[in-house]
Amino acid sequence: MERYLAIGKETIRYHLIWQVLISIGILCAAPLVLGVRNLNIQETARVVEYYAVFPGIVLLVPIFLPEQNRDIRDLIRSKYTAVGAIYGIRLVLSIVVMMAVSALFLYALKIGECEFPFDTFYPGLLAGMVFLGGIGLLSYALCDNVVVGYMMPLLFYIVSMASGEKYLGKFYLFSMETGSYEEKWYLALAGMLFLGVGIAVRSRKES
């Protein structure tokens, strides 16, 4: 147990802290990029789905990044702790942070007198984050390239904006704007699948 706590502390201190700061910076910049006061439910959905999902990419994609350093990779291989467990700890910490910053962002929208149901927008936001982050993590695991890991979810985001729900169906990113929430279940399940497969693939490569 002490070994896992040490891994968690090291992750927070040397890696996760920067991702947290970037994520907070993105969300704090929302008032400069978008209007975030006195929005109706459709306008709030647009802010949440088009903008607030980006920390999901920032937090989930770089889980394998420390191993880009060969010394760290060799050190991990020399230890008895399974690399999959290390990735799992990093994933859990990133998801906890993602849940926290998402809740704070929605709370800030509430303070700004924006109209939206928290009980549907919160899981909807998390679903979008997990889906985009999952695409990036799986791409990173398959290609062993963090740039590809960042590019693939952004590409899907652009495709979703361009083609809309007509071609993406249940995997349309911006369904809350149209008043539909069913798609978020598909995004959440697919995102979790991508995360699990990505970690499994990367763990096999590193073992």
Automatic annotation (TrEMBL):
Record key words, sorted: Membrane, Transmembrane, Transmembrane helix
Membrane-spanning residues: 12-36, 48-66, 87-109, 121-140, 147-164, 184-201
Presence of the UniProt keyword Electron transport in the record: no
Superkingdom classification of source: Bacteria
Protein name from the UniProt record: ABC transporter permease
UniProt organism field: Sellimonas caecigallum
